[in-house]
Amino acid sequence: MPPIGLAVIGAGYWGPNLVRAARVTPAFRLQWLCDRDLGRAQAALDAYTPIQATASYEQVLADPEVGAVAIATPAATHFDLVRAALEAGKHVLVEKPLTATVDEGAKLADLARRTGLVLMCDHTYCYTPVVRRIRELIASGEIGDVQFVDSVRVNLGLIQPDVDVLWDLAPHDLSILDFVLPEGVVPVAVAAHTADPVGTGKACLAYLSLWLSNGVLAHVNVNWLSPMKIRTTVIGGTRRTIVWDDMNPPARLMIHDRGVDRLPADTVGPDERRQTLISYRTGDISVPALPEKEALLSVMAEFGSAISEGRAPLTDGYSGLRVLAVLEAASRSAESGGARVDVAMPAALEGSR
Ligand SMILES: NC(=O)c1ccc[n+]([C@@H]2O[C@H](COP(=O)([O-])OP(=O)(O)OC[C@H]3O[C@@H](n4cnc5c(N)ncnc54)[C@H](O)[C@@H]3O)[C@@H](O)[C@H]2O)c1
Asked: pTM score > 0.90 for this model?
């Protein structure tokens, strides 16, 4: 199959990464880089490149050579840009979050389904070797039943003009959970506590509790104000505990045979029960070897394969929509002072996972 003509939309912070990944992906021939600030698009390209810079999205969509677009513009613009691309018959890769509301996301997922075009959400972390391995570890039963999830994603972050820290950073954690949790396990309720200690006008740090459909409690902490970058996720299981420290490449993933077990009640008498029902496992820690492969290259490869094979990508519009459903419930919770709010999965999601 000849390479698919591609346009990248948005040449700000993230767009140039999509450009770089697209240029080395055989499935695509990058034709356009579009930014409404033409100078920014031009600056992101080298002088002798055949890739054309433009400020006109209409020009890109009118080009019959363009079969697909990859959109890296602010979240508030995603709905209009993705809809226009799908209506023009182009396959779409769009940055997280899919859209600014569940309603918009559901419309796009439905439009992609009706047109038969690929709608892929760039949930980048799902394409990292470490997250793929975590998914396998959970699916194979190696860690047993998941008992808790604790995820921390804090650093000195760019305060975004259009979204708060929940909508900027938590899509990473929520998309990872969506990807690694066992089939059918989804968040059913959330409580979010947020703060804006600097007075930026939007939440800069957030604590998000998630109740999952299997009764497990998960927690996500995101923060733009931390001078130290911490990227740690702990997933406790009945057999093993996964510790993923993304800032520690030599031991990014550790599997601990350490944890707390509960002995069957009939093994001890009633008087000693309180002390002896609990036993501590202090076994080995193993560190699996993981390939070092840049996630964005896998994102692009998956986008190309989904188009050529006429199938849904690993992170399709519905996975973007599931993340939005949690984000929207989290925002409602934060607005009401952190109350527990049910996650309403939109009707469009029925049977999507
Ligand atoms: N996957 C990841 O790990 C990751 C990392 C960073 C950002 N992102 C996502 O990428 C998207 C962009 O973020 P960013 O930090 O690059 O933003 P940015 O503000 O740095 O860049 C956005 C660019 O889009 C351009 N733009 C806006 N509206 C446009 C339009 N209608 N047509 C053409 N160009 C338009 C702006 O001029 C700007 O150059 C966001 O959705 C963000 O969440 C993803």
From this structure: yes
